[in-house]
Amino acid sequence: MRKMNEEDFSVMAKWLSMREVLEFFGDVNSPFTIQQVIKKYGPRIDGQVPIHPYIVERNGEPIGFMQHYQLADQLAEEIQLEYGYPLALNVQGIDQFIGNPALFNQGIGTVMVKKFLNHLNALSTDRVVLDSAVSNLRAIRCYEKCGFVKVKRINSGGNWLMEYRNRK
Fold it and tell me: Does the first or last residue of the chain, that is N or C, have fewer Cβ atoms within 10 Å of its Cβ?
């Protein structure tokens, strides 16, 4: 895993145009253009937006995307409270996907998430949360293997709020 940079815009545009990725990470009817990728991820790379994007590599080739953000940052404070977490807790939200469908169902996602959790543990994170579509059974199994538990359904019942507790 490495920090995302501007050279990754084209691979992100490719991934975010694939139905298999957009099914659970976006909207299958709205594939991303390179300009949309630059607009969304450029400020994250530059540090203008407090969301930290990474590219996952395997044998030197990009295969996936991960990002984390502190829930209590100005834009997400109400979300942290809505989810029931005191603002004193360091709660990190994460999002991720594998960009190559040929790599699905091989345990790669589990390895990615476990390594990311180790990275976040080093940041003194108390909890890590994510929201998975209720219908995304493959991802839910992955997250449960990594130690996440279902907390409650959110987004009108369409997603599971899942939580990982750092075992300091």
Answer: C
